[in-house]
Amino acid sequence: MAATGFEIEKFDDKINFNLWQVRMMAILVQIGLKKVVTRKKLENLNQTKWEELDEKVLSAIQLCLANTIL
Question: Mean of the pLDDT values across residues 25-49?
Answer without folding.
Answer: 86
